[in-house]
Specification:
This protein is of the alpha+beta class. It is 50% helix and 11% strand. It folds into three domains: 128 residues, no CATH class; 203 residues, endopeptidase domain like (from Nostoc punctiforme) (endopeptidase fold (from Nostoc punctiforme)); 97 residues, no CATH class. A hairpin with a 3-residue loop joins strand 6 and strand 7. It starts with 15 loop residues before the first helix and ends with a helix.
Length: 507
Amino acid sequence: MPQGETAGEPLSPPPPRRRRWRRRLLTIGLPALVALYLLLLIPDSVPTPPRLAKDPFAWNQDDRWKALEERFLASRLEAPEARRRAIGEALGDLRSQVARLGQGAVPADDPLLDRIEDDLFSLAARVGASPENLAAFLELANAVRDAVKEQSVRWDLQSPATRARLYRLLYGGRAAVEEAMLQAPPSAVPALTLCRDEPSPAPGATVLGVRLHSGDILLSRGAAPTSSLIARGNDFPGNFSHVALVHVDAATSRVSVVEAHIEKGVAVATIDEYLRDIKLRVMVLRLRSDLPALLAKPGIAEAAAAAALADARARHAPYDFAMDGKDHSKVFCSEVASAAYEREGVRLWMGMSTISSPGLCAWLAAFGVENFVTQEPSDLEYDRQLRVVAEWRDPEALLQDHVDNAVTDVLLEGAERGERLGYAWPRLPIARALKAWSCGLNVFGGVGPIPEGMSASAALRSEELRTRHEALRARLLGRVASFRAERGYTPPYWELVRLAREAASAK
């Protein structure tokens, strides 16, 4: 029997003092809690992003994509010997064009570049029907990228037409290769592509078949919806969402990776820790060995990596959601590399990234972005000061990468129609309480449920993005399965976007 009770006796009334405290709680405490809850419901103001006088890149080539798909289907029906001969001739023609590209200066508007672009896509359609030619096609596409980047040294990258040309050839070449890869069995898709073994005097160590050196830059793509948004949220949509800098200890060959995480700011990881995070792809970039600054001071890459490592260990630098590459008190992922090389007199991102679509800018502003001329991870691939050394791809996840891109592209089409990222309004006080708890943990070096520098409302919008993305992705995957069962091949990217639009309109 509970203490203070006797069988058959009524419960005694609480003493007068306890009754007074209850009345005070009801008359003062409860209204105060309600007032606090209502106060915490007041939404944050979202600044209106600036309008840039630029137009995002658009292929606008639906007829071309349809023709390529028809060529792929026709190639599947060809006799094996005829298909082998046609692909062999096409590979030979493209090799000849690449050789011509390396014989002298070629302006950005040269018709030779139009032909190379056309032949890359056309060859991809044929190789998609003949996976045994994938290795030769991949090697040739890498040669095209090297030759184009070499030519771009003489191009004016401030010209919109020139910038579009570079993007069409480099991103377009990547897209063509991966369309062919998606039609091949995963066992035929190489997990590692060795592109160019650019010499480096900096300390090095071999990781998963690649010789990494201090100062190397790692571009990667994560699996989260925000990773897809970062990769695609650009005037030139790309495939990468994260930048990190490599340091190799000269005495021990220990490989460290310096990077900025949304959750905890700038941090140092071992190479195993870096690779343990889910990554759909990783590209290795290195300063070209004939760069004038490197010739004048051969230790630039090693010095940049060592300074970045020392700075990361000496201070706490929160993640910079504003994406301000000039203020290094807070740091976003691209800034880890750009700030390190800036100290050595090398300015990366010679062509700055621009974000000008009004809907996209509104979404990013709601996440705290303030700078819309900045340093996007994907654009570093096109920097002519850097060589592409190698790329790791997860063959099993390649379709996931493309599906995520298609979902994000369609969500951003909605953003341009005025759809905004909202959140469940009654949850804002709870999120703000979690934010206060996170701030307390941050003071003592901990990591809370809401990242340092991110507002409670931005965290709720991030959750809303994930919810929308996952729901549309699930519907799209169902349509992809039906497409494969019906037609006998994996839908190319333009079909993925079409299917994603259908899935979005059918919700």
